[in-house]
Design brief:
single chain; 2 domains; two-stranded antiparallel ribbon; 2 strands
C-alpha cells in the first residue's frame, strides 16, 4: 500500500469514528479533537493526491517530448531531448517555467 492509500484509510476511518460517536449522542465537546484530526487528514490526503497526479502528468509530457524529433530551423537540434536540456525558447511551449509541449515545425 502506498502513502496515498494510507492517508485515505486514516482520513475516512477517523471521520467515520467521529461521526459514529456523534450518532451515539456523545457531546461534540468530547469529539471535537477527533473531528479536527479527521478534517486535517482529509486535507492532507487531497493535497497529496493532487500533487502526485501533477507529477505523473509532468512525467508523461516529458516522456512524450523525449520521443519526438526536432525540426526547428532556429536551434538546429535533431532530438527534442536536446531542446529540453538547453531549454530552447524557439520550439518549447512553456508556462511559468514548466514545459507543456514541444513544437517541431
Amino acid at each position: 500500500m502506498n502513502i496515498n492509500r494510507y492517508l485515505m484509510v486514516l482520513a475516512i476511518g477517523t471521520g467515520m469514528i467521529a461521526i459514529s460517536l456523534l450518532l451515539f449522542k456523545i457531546p461534540i465537546i468530547a469529539v471535537w479533537e477527533l473531528l479536527l484530526v479527521s478534517v486535517s487528514l482529509i486535507t492532507v490526503w487531497v493535497y497529496y493526491d493532487w500533487r502526485e497526479k501533477k507529477k505523473i502528468e509532468v512525467r508523461k509530457i516529458q516522456d512524450k517530448i523525449k520521443a519526438e524529433k526536432c525540426w526547428c530551423h532556429v536551434c538546429k537540434h535533431t532530438e527534442a531531448q536536446d531542446c529540453i536540456k538547453v531549454n530552447c525558447t524557439c520550439c518549447l511551449l512553456l508556462k511559468k517555467n514548466e514545459i507543456l509541449g514541444h513544437e517541431s515545425g
